[in-house]
Amino acid sequence: MNMLLSMIRRKDSVNQLKVGSILDKYGWLGPAEIGAQGNQTLFLVIQHAERPVQEKYFDLMKKAVESGKLKASSFALLEDRLALKQGKYQIYGSQIRWDMSSNSYQVMPIRDPEHVDIRRANVGLPPISVYLLELGIEWDIVKYKMYVSKLALELGLKNE
User: Fold this and answer.
1) Are 92 and 100 in contact (CB under 8 A)?
2) Residue 146: phi, psi to the nearest 5?
3) Which residues contact 97 (CB under 8 A, 6 or more apart)?
4) What does the alpha-carbon distance between residue 71 and residue 44 come to, in Å, rounded to a whole number?
5) How many Cβ atoms are within 10 Å of 143's Cβ, its own excluded?
6) Euclidean distance between the first and the last CA atom of the chain, given in angstroms as a whole number
7) Which residues neighbour 49 within 8 Å (Cβ) at sequence distance 6 or greater?
8) Where are the alpha helices (DSSP H) in 27-160?
9) Measured distance CA(133)–CA(122) in Å, rounded
10) Which burial class, exposed, middle or buried, applies to 135 when counting CB atoms under 10 A from its CB (0-12, 13-18, 19+)?
11) All structural domains of the chain with their residue ranges
């Protein structure tokens, strides 16, 4: 297992260097320039990078959404992941984790969960209940709110 993780990390590092040099030289390249798969590859490399890389390209990606070179739904996933890494609540509810105490997947803390579906719709994401059902998770906002306050405290997150 350690060998596999080491190989993945090495490949991720190489991919980040390659993508970083492309972005630094050309800016964000949309589907019209490099195809849908190339555009998605750029996104995925940054989405799965460490926090400093995500922060470095965050504004570039935000501008890419505004210019139609990146899907708002993709950028929303990065926003959520980065918010959690920065000690904040996520916005769109895209990030989940395995909770050993309940032996189930749980949604990481969401800011204002009562209105998450409005925010999700605004960026082209399906309702959270539909998204979670695809992952085998039932969305019950009452249970979620009871669970999430404990989790947020445990993780030291700020609800901004």
Assistant:
1) no
2) -70, -40
3) 105, 106, 108
4) 12
5) 11
6) 38
7) 12, 16
8) 31-47, 51-66, 72-85, 116-122, 128-134, 141-155
9) 20
10) exposed
11) 2-70, 96-155
- Identify which of 31, 19, 115, 128 has the alpha carbon closest to the alpha carbon of residue 70: 31
Q: What is the pTM of this model?
A: 0.89
pLDDT (tens digit per residue) in 129-147: 999 999 989 999 998 888 8
Angle, CA of 128, 119 and 40, to the nearest 5° = 80
What is the number of residues in the chain? 160
- The residue behind tokens 């320039």 is 33
SS3 annotation, 130-143: HHHHHCCCCCCHHH
Q: What is the pLDDT of residues 96-135, one digit of tens each?
A: 998 887 888 889 999 999 999 999 999 999 999 999 999 9
Residue type at 126 in one-letter notation? P
Locus of tokens 């749980």: 106
- Chain-centroid distance of CA 100 in Å reads 22
Name the DSSP letter for residue 110. Answer: B
